[in-house]
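Lay summary

Proteins are chains of building blocks that fold into shapes. Our project writes down both the chain and a compact code for its shape. Here are two examples, one after the other.
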Amino acid sequence: MIGFTTRTFAGAISRGESTPEKIIAWAASEHFPWLEVRDVSLALEEGDLRKLAEQAEKRNVRLAYAWDGTNILDPADGKQFLRGVKNAAVFGPGTFVRLTIAGRVIRDNPSKVGYSPAELATLRDRI
């Protein structure tokens, strides 16, 4: 199944030329079965997410959820991660969530090619 992300339309949204609601309607009209709501900085409120979920359900479009920047290995990011999980839960059971789990750990160390066994264990526990 092919879907897309609202991030594709970030420019149009920021200029006020489109909205996530309009994008859901367009996705449905073009027979896309799913759409990722990209909440870059976890700024969307629960009420806004519920409205999107209701609109998508009426149009038979499944919503996924994504946000940027989380580092689950950093305890300081714990609240951010939990907010993202709570937001995604608004879209119902089985919602796909896409996020960076600890990208800074790799990005900030160019010689690192993966997570250590201890880091993987921590990621599993926190997820």
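And here is the second example, written the same way.
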Amino acid sequence: MNVFNPIFSKNFRYSNLLLTDSALYYRVDPKLPGGMWDRVFITSDEKTICGLLGFELDEILKATKEEFFIMMAKSPMVINKRFETVRKNNKLEFYVEFSEFLKTFKETNKEFTPVSMENFFHIRDEFMDDMSESMLWLTERHVVNSKFNGKTIKGAFPDYDMTKLSDTIPKFKDSFSSKKENELFIIKNGPSEIHKKFLEVTN
């Protein structure tokens, strides 16, 4: 059984986690207007991912589909009722099969145990720092456009050729590894540091 399967993926959501086809992330969602959220990497190690749900990697890899369903149905870290009803537009056959299996499974009396965030600090030393960065970005990114724009560049450099901005501003943004890193730089720094970096990158 593949560790990166839709049953694991859906169940991780109820611990505020996101399992993609290659890694597990923590979903950072401060419930901001517009629904902006971010994700923080936890691990791509299959053994660790299985361990977070109380399973051994070997038993998952060796399991048949039916054996896997039984393990999921019995686990206190899986919410059976979330799989009992399949939406009409859900095309994943795996969901349908698990849902049908649960109709015949009698051992449903169990209390759900979510994955504890404390685990993530032990998995990645940088997890807490990344969480802080993510929260900072999500809650403060609204200030980016007012801290850095054509007007602020003109204010810092009165003789600047403003006709270059269509080229230099994108060049400045592209000097960062991502939009998030670009915006975090602006959030964290004052006008002089921002505009100094702008000149260094674009000259």
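What can we say about the second shape? Strands lie at 17-19, 24-28, 38-43.
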